[in-house]
Amino acid sequence: MKVEDYLRVFSGLANSRGRLYGLLSQLYVRPPDSEFLRELFSQEFEEIISGLLAQPTITGELSEGLGLIRKFIGEWRKKKLEKALEAVVSERDRLLGGRRLPPPCESAHVSGETAGVTLFYGKVGVKIPESAEEPPDHLGFELDFMRFLCGEEAAAWGEGNLEKALSLIGMQDSFLKQHLKAWIPGFCDLMFEEARLDLYRGLAKLTKGFLSQDESLLNEFLSGMAEALEGFEPENMEGV
User: Fold this and answer.
1) What is the pLDDT of residue 229?
2) Where are the chain's structural domains?
3) What topology is assigned to 3-228 in CATH?
4) Residue 25: Cβ-neighbour burial (10 angstroms; 0-12, 13-18, 19+)
């Protein structure tokens, strides 16, 4: 393949990863409402899940999580929307509202880590609005930060800026290892055990499985790039 083709592939991969981080973030941050359930119960969303499950790379907890979410959709879309919404809102409050489980915030699981999270945010100019109801180290915000970094990486590949793209990948790898993987898998295990609805049991498995897969992907990518660029000084490839 030509250099341009590789850049296009890398950009597409970053965009795909960013979309999934964004979806997971919304599922943790967005309060369920009628519109949320209509989207969840739509034929389009079911086709997306079926398409993902058909991919050979979707295995283990990723596959289990998507399967549980599809099972929830199949069971609850037949019931009245109001009844389903009541069940989802109650379950979300029970699991993510700090009632049955520790709050879904890093500082509740890893002592004193809020400052470390905001330091990462500040490196790329990300600020959590003062009006936000949740703290900066909330699970949803940390996932959304990864979405942001993936988007910036995709743009860098599109511009042919290899140095910036690799820097952003390195930041993703560091944030994932130092923060997300330090507490979210453990929280997901707790949520899976406590959850009554397959929607949240599936979300727990999907989140944990995706973080594990993404960590492996970043490790392989950085290792491969290190070998390919051995003795090569990264520079802006905009003119390629």
Assistant:
1) 62
2) 3-228
3) TorD-like (1.10.3480)
4) buried
